[in-house]
Design a protein that fits this description.
The mean pLDDT is 97. The chain has two domains: 111 residues, Roll (Urease, subunit C, domain 1); 287 residues, TIM Barrel (Alpha-Beta Barrel), CATH 3.20.20. The protein has 15 helices and 16 strands. The longest helix has 19 residues. By secondary structure, it is α/β, with parallel strands linked by helices. Helix 5 packs parallel to helix 6. Bound molecules: N-(iminomethyl)-L-glutamic acid and fe (iii) ion. The site of fe (iii) ion (FE) has 5 residues, from loops.
Length: 411
């Protein structure tokens, strides 16, 4: 179908063809067109331009977005949105002084989620995940990565990944699945870490590979979870099954996660609440993208990823929600942007680039989304009223998205 959206007040994110990632100072600029149109065919953008140059075509349907402002659909490159239950009782414990690590060591945290997920049917998980995905879409997210990692046994990890597969079939948005069997050592393997790692490499990965259930492989490489050596074994096995790493690194300490991620060609290393000169030097020698998750720092009271230092070094930065029931129960990338501006000192333009083009790069989807460029999907948000770009992170706690279009279709 041929469609043209006309009379648009402003289109943000009209990156030129071939610009696939923004590094360092380039992140401060968001190109835009005023009084513009956007044309698409079968969900793919064919042209953007100024209204003064627009000539109507016979075979196309016109949708007037009179006076509206558009941004590219937001890209959430790191979520755990398939889960069985909220963990608000742990929220209370943390308010009263227990740390995330203490709660995890006592069998709470990820293990608590695993216990509940194992008892929940695939159907129920799917229904609950649908509600969360609709909520994310209503806040402007049109591309999303979803991890497993609350199963921690073969059947339950497969159950989670099958739920993600069904979500892929059910939703028009682009969805990527990441296998995170190495999220924690399950209770039954507490005395046998090597046994659990073998279960992942010898049983889970081949089963996932056989069903084609995952796009990426993740490991929680951190203090109290998986060591860099264990991570290396796991990533090697994942690569043998064609799964590129995207890992959790340095949330709880300077634990070598960045280095092992880079060593195995990770597409991204996520978290980096702890990140010093050695990590920056290591990233500069790689194509691995650092991803900050400010919702987690906010919710757990952790340091914020030093994104200014990363950008000053000339690196690209992406941001994601980390939406999950333990460390970041917030699904809105608009809130992520706000935290990035107030806590990480990112400019609104840098924050928008970090949740669009650079986030798409962190999913290897920057040739199909992340900017409103001919050849990419017509995934965009229509904003409420007449905001400036800065108003999105400034006026926080408010949903600035009025309508969401995925492949040119209003959702
Ligand atoms: O990204 N850090 C590891 N995984 C999640 C938290 C998982 C949980 O607490 O349920 C995260 O923060
Ligand atoms: Fe996470």
């Amino acid at each position: 179908m041929n469609l043209v959206f006309t009379n648009i007040n402003r289109i943000y994110g009209t990156q030129p063809n071939g610009r696939h990632i923004l590094k360092g100072t380039d992140m401060a600029e968001v190109p835009f067109l005023d009084h513009a149109y956007l044309r698409c065919r079968d969900g793919i953008i064919t042209e953007t331009g100024l209204m003064q140059d627009w000539v109507a075509k016979e075979d196309e349907q016109q949708v007037s977005l009179e006076g509206k402002w558009l941004i590219p659909g937001l890209v959430d490159s790191h979520t755990h949105l398939v889960f069985a239950a909220a963990r608000e009782e742990e929220f209370r414990m943390r308010i009263s002084g227990k740390s995330y690590e203490e709660i995890a060591a006592a069998g709470g945290g990820i293990l608590n989620s695993a216990l509940k997920l194992r008892q929940t049917s695939e159907e129920q998980l799917f229904e609950d995940a649908c509600v969360r995905l609709h909520l994310m879409m209503a806040h402007g997210t049109t591309t999303v990565e979803i991890k497993s990692g609350y199963g921690l046994d073969t059947a339950s990890e497969l159950k989670m990944l099958r739920v993600i597969k069904r979500l892929k079939e059910h939703f028009p948005m682009q969805i990527r699945a990441t296998f995170l069997g190495a999220h924690a050592i399950p209770a039954e393997f507490r005395q046998d870490r090597a046994g659990y790692i073998r279960l992942i490499t010898d049983e889970m990965l081949p089963a996932i590979h056989a069903e084609g259930l995952a796009d990426f492989m993740d490991v929680f490489c951190d203090r109290g979870f998986f060591s860099p050596e264990e991570t290396a074994t796991l990533l090697e096995a994942g690569l043998r099954c064609g799964l590129r790493p995207k890992i959790h690194a340095n949330e709880l300490g300077l634990t070598g996660g960045v280095q092992v991620g880079v060593q195995f060609g990770a597409l991204s290393v996520d978290h980096l609440e702890h990140c010093g000169p050695d990590e920056i030097a290591c990233l500069l020698e790689s194509h691995t993208i650092p991803v900050g998750l400010p919702g987690t720092s906010y919710f757990l009271g952790l340091p914020y990823t030093p994104v200014r230092a990363l950008m000053d070094a000339g690196l690209p930065v992406a941001l994601a929600s980390d939406f999950n029931p333990g460390s970041s129960p917030g699904p809105s990338l608009q809130m992520t942007m706000s935290l990035a501006c107030t806590q990480m000192k990112m400019l609104p333009e840098e924050a928008l680039n970090a949740v669009t083009l650079n986030a798409a790069a962190a999913l290897d989807l920057n040739d199909t989304c992340g900017s409103l460029t001919p050849g990419k999907r017509a995934d965009f948000c229509v904003l409420k009223g007449n905001p400036s770009l800065a108003l999105i992170p400034y006026h926080f706690g408010v949903n600035h998205v009025e309508e969401v279009y995925v492949q040119g279709v209003r959702c």
